[in-house]
Amino acid sequence: MQAAREAARRTSCQNKIRQLAIATQNYESAHGSLPGEPGGGLDGLTFYIHILPYIEASVLADLYDPSVQPRKQLRNVFSQPDPTMLCPSDQPVQVLYAKGFDANNSGTGDTAHDYKGNYGINWGTGYYDQSRPLWNFVTQSNQPGEPGPFQPDKEIELRRITDGTSNTLLLIEMLAAPTGGPSEGNAGIDRRGRLWIPATASHQISTLLLPNSSPCDSGGGGRGGGSTTLDPRTGCGKDRGFCIDRPDLGLHCDRGSDGAGEAAGYTLAGRSNHSGGVNAARCDASVEFVTSDIDLAVWRALGSRAGNEVITE
């Protein structure tokens, strides 16, 4: 019975990520490019806000006011969960505290009670700074990472996805991390799963780490163990960014600071509560269940939009 219920939840998750992928295609047909994504910060329209009008039966599309900055609507609009953004295998998570959000923009207090979601955008093969070097399996050397269909402050046209829309990931499942309350202050902040502001380490998923990646062995290779260091050759490691280490929930974290240098090295893995993998949608709106033991070179190739890799699945 339990297995049947989880199978139904997984199917529901696949249907929702497909719906978001189709909404993205409809946006592209209307605007000539994929939705843009601001390069961090608190202001600007995220991918999810761009596609709201194209999501069938969205509960937020009619409530969102495009004349008001999204961060000023976190309490009165985005404090309602949108079922399309949520996978039933995960629990809905509402932000209880986020630094710098208040009604009067005075820098004190908190009105960020937005709900998180479970579908992140494909940020490419590496770190938040997409040009930061990582291990390249073709050249067997460290080279700059390859961006996915999203880059900071750019709207990518489909013709720039030269690897092909059927060979490039668009959306990857993620877990919405619980957050602490105001009494915990910054120590209780975990951005993973936030959709409505463009903050770093919130919904930008990369293929640097394998799906459901766990900490590397202390020796630096393999999977499991306790080292916080990423191993780009094996795809193991913890998420890095504004997060809280919750191994009990499958949410491993190596917490960064809010400095610009730290943000460049932020990275998030695709994660889910499904056994053995995550759901993902490609740029042609096809959906699949990707196993956690997928070959890392293939996973990286699916993350790039113009890497010219040969994918053998």
Automatic annotation (TrEMBL):
Transmembrane segments: none annotated. Residues 210-232 are annotated as: Disordered. Residues 218-227 have a biased composition (Gly residues). It holds the Pfam family SBP_bac_10. It comes from the Bacteria. Residues 2-296 form the DUF1559 domain. NCBIfam families: pre_pil_HX9DG (TIGR04294). This is DUF1559 domain-containing protein. It comes from Aeoliella straminimaris. The lineage of its organism: Bacteria, Pseudomonadati, Planctomycetota, Planctomycetia, Pirellulales.
